[in-house]
């Protein structure tokens, strides 16, 4: 298949990440009457005019493109909620705010195909862009802190697209550090066998985001 | 997409529809409830796992077989679509399922191709019969090609495919899949502390739904039992 991405670094293409996101459920308000859809991925409907129902995102976009429905914007995509998230993101430099895992893909699809259904769409668009920029900046600065002693990384609340963007680099970096650092760790341990084992030598866990309970 | 046209009698149409509904109920994809997973969902998760894992995972033979049957039924049932909208939506759904299936199978083939020797000698559980055949044939073709084009021209001690020379004590030309790589993962049940490796006593406390980047070796068992999802 022409679009197949390389598996060797567990790489998903952006299109594949969007494909996964398109199965998320979203609420639509049909403006037509249609019988129930018995699809391989589930049964949906029957569709009655002005009665909201839940369908997968790909189906919602398809119906919207044909003018058969309007899409109800998810609650997290309101101006108030997004403003709150943006402020919280700016205030905490090492923490990511909870957002839907596929927020990038969902907002991209809705902004592209259903912008007339989104209240204050320009504001929403600019808020989401700002949120994405702030979060990615945090990811980048977090990457700088990965040292040779990293054995595991914790990334609380990172979203699918952000994970995918950072995956190839992070995997290569961790592997490279692992390869170049472990023999030294062993040698150091042997040389300083008489000393008390130092916690530092065993590798620190670096969190890109702190956990606050 | 195969279309049978209007040749089938209405009785046959009814029976087909009934069969489709029954098989869906059996497979658990009817009703739209989320308690039982549809086969498409299960396939999507298997595809994701396979893509994210550096080694070949066990072949989901039952799932693939069931999904193929459902896709076949759906394709055959195309003749009773009079509305353009319904038919195009069904096609989209079909295309999505087909993509998952095809990508899953091709992904596995490319993994097998990357480590032919290694997978040629693994247990039958891991590979499907067709994959096994593919592996044997590829191995045979590759060996023959290498032998003809290169190895037979080298001095006799260096002609082995798997050893650098006859003085090597093990197969040092062969590389098993690289399991030391790091993967992104999310626990979906409570796992608690996990020992990272044998070197130190690094313990990571795995909290449900938090995202971690860990060495694949440390989480292999958890991935197999489904307690941790690969992202």
From TrEMBL, chain A:
One record GO biological process: double-strand break repair via break-induced replication
Domain DNA replication complex GINS protein PSF2 N-terminal: 14-71
Annotated InterPro entries: GINS_A, GINS_bundle-like_dom_sf, GINS_Psf2, PSF2_N
Oligomer status and interactors: Component of the GINS complex.
This protein's name: DNA replication complex GINS protein PSF2
Keyword list, A-Z: DNA replication, Nucleus
Gene3D superfamilies documented for this protein: 1.20.58.1020, 3.40.5.50
Species this protein is from: Rhynchospora tenuis
Main location: nucleus
Subcellular location field: Nucleus
TrEMBL record, chain B:
SUPFAM superfamilies per UniProt: GINS helical bundle-like, PriA/YqbF domain
Cellular component GO terms held in the UniProt record: GINS complex
Compositionally biased intervals (Basic and acidic residues): 32-42
Compartments it resides in: Nucleus
Domain (GINS subunit) ranges: 72-146
Location of region: Disordered: 1-42
Function as written in the Swiss-Prot or TrEMBL entry: The GINS complex plays an essential role in the initiation of DNA replication.
Family, as annotated: Belongs to the GINS4/SLD5 family.
Name by which UniProt lists this protein: DNA replication complex GINS protein SLD5
Organism for this UniProt entry: Rhynchospora tenuis
Organism classification: Eukaryota, Viridiplantae, Streptophyta, Embryophyta, Tracheophyta
């Amino acid at each position: 298949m022409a679009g197949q991405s390389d598996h060797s670094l567990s790489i998903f293409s952006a299109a594949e990440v969007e494909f996964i996101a398109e199965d998320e459920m979203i609420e639509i308000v049909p403006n037509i009457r249609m019988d129930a859809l018995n699809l391989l991925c589930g049964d949906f409907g029957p569709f009655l005019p002005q009665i909201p129902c839940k369908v997968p995102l790909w189906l919602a976009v398809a119906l919207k493109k044909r003018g058969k429905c309007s899409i109800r914007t998810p609650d997290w995509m309101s101006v108030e909620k997004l403003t709150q998230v943006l402020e919280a993101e700016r205030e905490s430099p090492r923490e990511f705010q909870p957002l839907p895992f596929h927020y990038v893909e969902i907002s991209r699809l809705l902004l592209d195909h259903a912008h007339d259904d989104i209240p204050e769409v320009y504001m929403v668009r600019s808020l989401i862009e700002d949120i994405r920029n702030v979060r990615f900046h945090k990811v980048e600065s977090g990457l700088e802190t990965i040292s040779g002693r990293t054995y595991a990384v914790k990334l609380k609340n990172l979203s699918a697209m952000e994970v995918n963007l950072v995956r190839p680099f992070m995997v290569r970096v961790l592997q490279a550090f692992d390869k170049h650092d472990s023999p030294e760790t062993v040698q150091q341990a042997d040389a300083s066998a008489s000393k008390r084992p130092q916690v530092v030598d065993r590798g620190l866990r670096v969190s890109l985001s702190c956990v606050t309970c | 997409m195969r279309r049978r046209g209007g040749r089938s009698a209405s009785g046959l149409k009814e029976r087909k529809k009934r069969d489709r509904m029954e098989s869906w109920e059996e497979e658990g994809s009817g009703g739209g409830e989320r308690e039982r997973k549809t086969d498409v969902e299960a396939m999507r998760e298997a595809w994701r796992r396979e893509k994210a894992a550096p080694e070949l995972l066990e072949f989901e033979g039952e799932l693939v077989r069931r999904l193929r049957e459902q896709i076949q039924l759906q394709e055959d049932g195309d003749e009773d679509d009079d509305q353009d909208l319904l038919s195009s939506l069904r096609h989209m759904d079909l295309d999505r399922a087909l993509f998952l299936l095809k990508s899953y199978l091709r992904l596995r083939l490319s993994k097998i191709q990357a480590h032919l020797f290694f997978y040629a000698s693994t247990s039958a559980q891991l590979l499907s019969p067709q994959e096994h055949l593919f592996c044997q044939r590829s191995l045979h073709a590759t060996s023959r090609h290498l032998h003809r084009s290169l190895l037979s021209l080298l001095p006799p001690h260096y002609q082995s495919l798997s050893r650098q020379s006859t003085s090597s004590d093990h197969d040092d030309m062969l590389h098993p899949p690289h399991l030391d790589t790091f993967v992104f993962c999310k626990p979906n049940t409570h796992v608690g502390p996990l020992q990272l490796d044998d070197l130190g006593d690094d313990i990571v406390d795995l909290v449900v739904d938090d995202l971690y980047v860990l060495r694949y070796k440390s989480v292999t068992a958890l991935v197999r039992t489904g307690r941790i999802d690969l992202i």
